[in-house]
Amino acid sequence: MSKPPARIRLADAAFALFDERGYEQTTIDDIAERAGVGRTTFFRHYRSKEEVIFPDHDRLLELIRDRLATSSHSTALVAVSDAVRLVLLHYIEEGDLARRRYALTSKVATLRDREIASVARYQRLFREFIADWMGDPTEAASLRAELMAANVVAAHNHVLRRWLRGESADPVAEVDEAMHEVLALFPAPGSRPETSGGTTLVAFRTGQNIDALLPSLRRLIEDGAEK
Fold this sequence. Notes:
Blueprint: H1 6-21, H2 28-35, H3 39-45, H4 49-53, H5 57-69, H6 76-94, H7 96-107, H8 109-134, H9 139-164, H10 171-184, H11 210-226
Helix pairs in contact: 1-2, 5-6, 5-8, 6-9, 6-10, 7-8, 8-9, 9-10
């Protein structure tokens, strides 16, 4: 049976050593030795010990850019959903490696900080795309783009964490539903909810019988119409 590629052996060796000795106590030389390769081979695949842990964010961001670039104005939000799904699928394909990374970054503050910094790169990419889709240079539109991007990333991360903790049997369906919820919060460019006319209804629960409430409700409606 042929050996796994050096990159995979290095990652397996690194996580095994992190489990045995702790992250801080493990060196690059330790990882290379456990994987049966030299330092030169290590640095051919990874620039640092930290890079062994994290997914290839540069490649994932490029996948997102490629998917967003294929969209038209009318399919922009579909492209955003597809791009989010691509990232989730990458983690799912990593399987146990992704879960081991999650456990490690949850315990080591410096790694958790780096992961948070990587999230900002995804949010910036989505924000720039959404802002361009809106085609509105105003500050209000800029804020909407920022809010949309933040919600897109938060929805993905919520589903991803559920899967990493073993709480989601169908993360792809969950992320699709989450994206549907997020994108429904934001109207398309140029559309705004009506703010005048019409009737506003408020639902509430009470122990009173509906027949006893109707006269009071009718008076409230009539008083509102007179103002």
